[in-house]
DNA sequence: GCGACAG
DNA sequence: ATCTTGTCGC
């Protein structure tokens, strides 16, 4: 039932990439890089009568099937602050003809549905396994999803891409110098003077930093605060949970189809 | 034991 | 992105 244009079988991948870049540039105009939400972050400001607190933090991640690289699982989880208890999860199994990115938009559907249903655990902010504005064109996955879902999003990367003169070893050197300081955070200012995000070590034991950047409708300060609040381990809980669960879901799906067919679903025999 | 990290 | 194995260290 694939309604692919039989006319352009070879250039479709290139076309999609171009379209994607165009869409990024369009959506980028709608990006909001400051706090644009009504809830409050910390309970220290108890004077904030009437305004709700941040309680539900979402996280998204995708895992890929080892045997069948076109099969992926998108997972959204919502956890509750300050307990970090997961109160909601949802999965979406998808087939990808082209890598990664279009599949990521499955999250938009999941979120849309939650909102339409007035789901009690609809997240107030969403953490994305991938960068926000810390991106070659200043518009990573976290921004993309944020703008599409009109939700505050935070980008969390595990590696630093080379943008504006930033590099991983430099960050780690700077962090090294801060060894004795309480704050294990360094601001990522590029050669241009632009602040792209921060690199920081969430726990004492994590030598390798994570990279936090603005996704949408949030300031870098707030983003970092929220990431800190959810870091039990190196990878913040919302993403860690989404990662583990999407992986487990694929695994189950695999063994389940193995029990049915009595064979691995590679189809390459 | 579990997490970080190697490669 | 995925897997596995092993070491180190709290």
From TrEMBL:
GO terms for cellular component: cytoplasm; nucleolus. Residues 1-21 are annotated as: Disordered. Keywords: Cytoplasm, Endonuclease, Hydrolase, Nuclease. Residues 1-14 have a biased composition (Low complexity). One of its GO terms (biological process) is DNA repair. Its main location: cytoplasm. It is found in: Cytoplasm. GO terms for molecular function: RNA endonuclease activity producing 5'-phosphomonoesters, hydrolytic mechanism; single-stranded RNA binding. Pfam families: Endonuclease_5 (PF04493). HAMAP family: Endonuclease_5. PANTHER family: ENDONUCLEASE V (PTHR28511). This is Endonuclease V family protein. It comes from Arabidopsis arenosa (Sand rock-cress).
